[in-house]
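Hi support team,

I've been running sequence recovery on a batch of backbones for a student project. Most finish fine, but this one hangs at about 90% for roughly twenty minutes before it completes. I'm not sure whether the input is malformed or the queue is just slow. I've pasted the structure tokens below so you can try to reproduce it. Let me know if you need the job ID as well.

Thanks,
M.K.
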């Protein structure tokens, strides 16, 4: 058994993350079935377009959660956890971690307020606009509740990112599993009892409640201790340390919205909720597979940061390469299985197959995810060095995706969306990202050699 664990590269953090993501995949499939069974094709479109519009929160979050993980992991290289739930070690590192947490609380507090003030009215206008569709369904109340709890959950997400960066990767994986178990169960109950689109609302409410209770119960001593820590020494300089890294991450993540989330609202507006529902469900299936594959990488991000600080370049390269091989094989196997399943569903003329994209378009999305996975792994490696060299390529990919989508989707529908996604992701994202990855590695190698001379 231990040999199998070593071969697969599965440790405690990966186990809980994988278990959580396998549960998410399985639960997602059940949810997809229930959505197709209990929601009309029109409400399915609302369901997935709600998700896409709520993802606009990234424009106020500005990638800070990822930055928190990176910077806190670097400080934790000089700190250790105590049995009482606090951290001890280098005084300056603890002070810097404290200032990072203070800054994060302020940032996400303002971001939560902006989400309510901006996203709530934007969504109400979009869904109730006569230009979108003529419908008697009033989405204002469920949308408003969803926005409010999304804003609250943003604070909890920040706290989880801090703990993850401080090395509590397996604990956060457990938290996410508990959140998923609770939120998905309630979602099913609401769908089963005819709650319709409110299923997505109660999902967010449960995520918020479970996350808040769990973090307060397990780690309130950590946050209380570090927030009361002495402020006599200087903390992190946001302007000179965090922002030069964060703004690049922010632009990359905002570009990611254009790449992954623009299609549903655009299809909703131009071809109605049914087309948006098919695209949304297909993207959800692909995203679940890719998220499960990224467990081999995302659980090691704090470790990558510590290795960079310690100068363990060879060990870092070996760890990333092994994780990439394992995760890529997992994703490829999943894609093959996905193709076989939907081929069978199409052959037996299952009504479920009509709720997603046609099989050729679905497979294009699936194989594009392989290219995206390569770029994601490369990005995790480079960002561990507190750099974001993918910023420009992400912006170009996002803009090109948006332009292609605006050009093709109104006339070609879901096919135009898939082609816009594939051409931009592979033609620009994969090729450009891989070129940058090897160029940066070569530059760092030359710099290390020069330092030894």
């Amino acid at each position: 058994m231990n040999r199998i664990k070593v071969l697969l590269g599965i440790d405690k953090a990966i186990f809980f993350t994988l278990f959580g993501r396998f549960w998410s995949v399985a639960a997602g499939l059940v949810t997809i079935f229930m959505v197709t069974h209990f929601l009309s094709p029109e409400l399915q479109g609302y369901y997935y377009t709600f998700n896409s519009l709520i993802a606009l929160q990234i424009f106020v979050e500005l990638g800070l959660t990822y930055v928190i993980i990176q910077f806190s992991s670097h400080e934790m290289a000089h700190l250790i956890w105590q049995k009482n739930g606090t951290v001890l070690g280098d005084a300056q590192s603890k002070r810097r971690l404290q200032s990072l947490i203070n800054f994060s609380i302020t940032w996400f507090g303002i971001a939560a307020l902006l989400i309510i003030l901006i996203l709530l009215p934007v969504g109400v206008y979009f869904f109730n606009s006569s230009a979108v569709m003529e419908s008697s369904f009033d989405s204002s109340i469920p949308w408003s509740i969803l926005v409010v709890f999304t804003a609250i959950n943003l604070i909890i997400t920040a706290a989880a990112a801090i703990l993850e960066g401080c090395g509590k990767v397996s604990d956060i994986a457990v938290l996410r599993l508990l959140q998923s178990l609770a939120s998905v169960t309630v979602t099913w109950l609401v769908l089963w009892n005819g709650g319709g689109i409110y299923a997505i609302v109660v999902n967010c409410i449960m995520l918020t409640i479970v996350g808040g209770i769990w973090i307060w119960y397990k780690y309130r001593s950590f946050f209380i201790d570090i927030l009361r820590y002495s402020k006599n020494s200087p903390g992190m300089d946001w302007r000179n340390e965090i922002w030069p890294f964060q703004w690049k991450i922010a632009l990359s993540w905002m570009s990611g919205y254009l790449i992954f989330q623009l299609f549903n609202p655009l299809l909703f507006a131009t071809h109605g909720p049914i087309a948006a529902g098919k695209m949304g469900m297909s993207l959800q299936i692909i995203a679940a597979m890719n998220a499960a594959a990224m467990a081999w990488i995302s659980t090691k991000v704090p470790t990558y940061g510590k290795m960079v600080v310690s100068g363990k370049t060879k060990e870092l390269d070996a760890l990333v390469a092994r994780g990439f091989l394992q995760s890529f094989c997992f994703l490829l196997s999943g894609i093959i299985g996905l193709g076989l399943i939907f081929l069978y569903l199409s052959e037996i003329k299952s009504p479920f197959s009509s709720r997603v994209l046609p099989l050729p378009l679905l497979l294009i999305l699936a194989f594009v995810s392989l290219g995206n996975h390569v770029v994601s792994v490369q990005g995790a490696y480079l960002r561990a060095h507190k750099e974001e060299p993918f910023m420009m390529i992400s912006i170009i990919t996002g803009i090109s995706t948006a332009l292609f989508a605006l050009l093709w989707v109104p006339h070609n529908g879901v096919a135009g969306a898939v082609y816009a996604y594939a051409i931009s992701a592979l033609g620009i994202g994969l090729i450009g990202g891989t070129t940058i990855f090897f160029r940066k590695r070569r530059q760092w190698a030359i710099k290390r050699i020069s330092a030894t001379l």
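--
Follow-up from support: It reproduced on our side and the slowdown came from queue contention, not your input. The chain is about 80% helix and 0% strand. No action needed from you.
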